[in-house]
Recover the amino acids of this structure.
C-alpha cells in the first residue's frame, strides 16, 4: 500500500503504518490523522513526539501500558492515564499515535 | 489470569548471526503483557547480546541492543548472566551494557537488572521455573 | 587459498576444522559470528593464536563493530579489514573455501 502527498509517494504496510520511518515528516502525520478524521492538536503532538523519542532511544514502539506509565512520568500524572490518552487517540493510544509518528505497530500489541 | 507462573527466557545465541535473539526479545516484550513472574538468562554466546558498544551502521542490520534497556519499563527486571560463560569468552561484567530498572515502590530508585550468577546458581534458578523458553 | 569462517567458535567446530586443514600460506577471514574467534583471552584464543604467523588471519571490521568488539580486544597479529579488503582477499587467492 502507499499514499501520495505533495508529489511524493509513501509506502505503508497493510495497516497503514509507514514502511520506512526515515521518510516521516509532520505533513505525513497530519495526513494520516486527517484520514482518520482527527485534527492534530498540541496535546496530540506531545504524545507523537514522545513516541519518536522513545523509539530513537530504545528502537521499539512501546506497548500501551508502558507508554501510559512513561507519559505520566514525563508529562505529569494528569496525562499518564488511559482516559486522557484514549480521548486523544480513540483507536488506541499506542497503535494510533505510533502510526502518526511513523513507527511500526507497537511490540506487545496483543 | 488464575495464577502467576515463573517464566524464564534463556538466551544462548550471539546477537546478529541468526534471528533468534531478536525474536526472543520480542517474545519477552509481548509476554510481559501477561503479568507473569519473568526473568531472562544469558548463557553461552547469549552473553554477547549484552555486550556494550554494538554499532551496526556498517552492516546495514538493525542494532537492537538499545531495546534491552526498555526491559525495565516492561517490568522485566532480572537478567541473569552466567559467570562461567563470560569468563570463557574473556569478558567481565564491565563489558556488558549497564541495564537498570526503576523501583516504583522505592521512590523510582534505579536498580541494576543484570545479576552475575554462577552455573550452579543458574541451575537452581532453572529448576524453580514453571515455564522455560529457549532462544 | 582463502578460508572464511562465519560461525562462533563457542558454538561450532568450523574454526577448529578450518585450522586443522588450512596449509601455511593460506588466508583465513573471520566474518559474521566467526569474528568472535578473534577475541583475545577466551578458551579458544590459543588455537588461533598458534596458527597466526604461518597463516594470515583477518577479521571483518563491520562485523566486529556491530558486535561491539574493539580492535584492542583481538588476538595480536589479526588484521582487521573492510568489505573492500574482503574483495581483495578473494581476488588475491585462487580459491575460496567457506566453512559454513
Amino acid at each position: 500500500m502507499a499514499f501520495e502527498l505533495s508529489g511524493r509517494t509513501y509506502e505503508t504496510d497493510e495497516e497503514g503504518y509507514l514502511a520506512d520511518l526515515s521518510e516521516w515528516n509532520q505533513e505525513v502525520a497530519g495526513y494520516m490523522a486527517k484520514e482518520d478524521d482527527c485534527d492534530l492538536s498540541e496535546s496530540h503532538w506531545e504524545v507523537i513526539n514522545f513516541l519518536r523519542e522513545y523509539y530513537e532511544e530504545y528502537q521499539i514502539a512501546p506497548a500501551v501500558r508502558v507508554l501510559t506509565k512513561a507519559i505520566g512520568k514525563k508529562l505529569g500524572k494528569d496525562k499518564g492515564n488511559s482516559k486522557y490518552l484514549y480521548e486523544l487517540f480513540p483507536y488506541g493510544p499506542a497503535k494510533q499515535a505510533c502510526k502518526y509518528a511513523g513507527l511500526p505497530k507497537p511490540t506487545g500489541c496483543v | 489470569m488464575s495464577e502467576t507462573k515463573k517464566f524464564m527466557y534463556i538466551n544462548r545465541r550471539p546477537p546478529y548471526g541468526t534471528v533468534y535473539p531478536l525474536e526472543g526479545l520480542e517474545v519477552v516484550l509481548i509476554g510481559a503483557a501477561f503479568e507473569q513472574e519473568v526473568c531472562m538468562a544469558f548463557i553461552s554466546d547469549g552473553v554477547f547480546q549484552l555486550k556494550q558498544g554494538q554499532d551496526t551502521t556498517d552492516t546495514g542490520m538493525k542494532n537492537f541492543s538499545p531495546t534491552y534497556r526498555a526491559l525495565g519499563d516492561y517490568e522485566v527486571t532480572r537478567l541473569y548472566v552466567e559467570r562461567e560463560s563470560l569468563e570463557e569468552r574473556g569478558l567481565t561484567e564491565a563489558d556488558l551494557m549497564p541495564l537498570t530498572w526503576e523501583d516504583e515502590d522505592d521512590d523510582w530508585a534505579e536498580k541494576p537488572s543484570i545479576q552475575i550468577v554462577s552455573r550452579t546458581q543458574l541451575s537452581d534458578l532453572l529448576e524453580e521455573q514453571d515455564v522455560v523458553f529457549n532462544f | 587459498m582463502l578460508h572464511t569462517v562465519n560461525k562462533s567458535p563457542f558454538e561450532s567446530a568450523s574454526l577448529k576444522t578450518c585450522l586443522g586443514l588450512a596449509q601455511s600460506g593460506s588466508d583465513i577471514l573471520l566474518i559474521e559470528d566467526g569474528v568472535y574467534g578473534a577475541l583475545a583471552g577466551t578458551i579458544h584464543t590459543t588455537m588461533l593464536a598458534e596458527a597466526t604467523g604461518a597463516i594470515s588471519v583477518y577479521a571483518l571490521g563491520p562485523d566486529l563493530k556491530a558486535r561491539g568488539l574493539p580492535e584492542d580486544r583481538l588476538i595480536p597479529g589479526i588484521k582487521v579489514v573492510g568489505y573492500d579488503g574482503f574483495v581483495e582477499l578473494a581476488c588475491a587467492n585462487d580459491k575460496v573455501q567457506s566453512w559454513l
Remarks:
- The first helix of chain A runs from residue 26 to 35.
- Chain A has a mean pLDDT of 90.
